[in-house]
Amino acid sequence: MDSQKTSQTIQDWVRRLPKAELHLHLEGTLEPDMLLQLAERNRILLPYDSVEAVRRAYAFTDLASFLRLYYQGTSVLCHEADFYELTMAYLRRAKADGVVHAEVFFDPQAHIERGISFAEVIEGIHHALEDGAKELGITCHLILCFLRDRPPHEAAAVLSQARPYLSWLCGVGLDSAERGHPPEWFMEVFERARSWGLHAVAHAGEEGPAAYIRQAMDVLHVERIDHGVRCEEDAMLMVRLARERMPLTVCPLSNVKLGVFSRLEDHNLARLLQRGLCITINSDDPAYFGGYVADNLLASARALQLDAQTIGVLCRNSLEASFLSPQERLHHMNQLDAIMESSGNG
Ligand code: ADE
Ligand code: ZN
Question: Which CATH superfamily hosts domain 24-342?
Answer without folding.
Answer: Metal-dependent hydrolases (3.20.20.140)
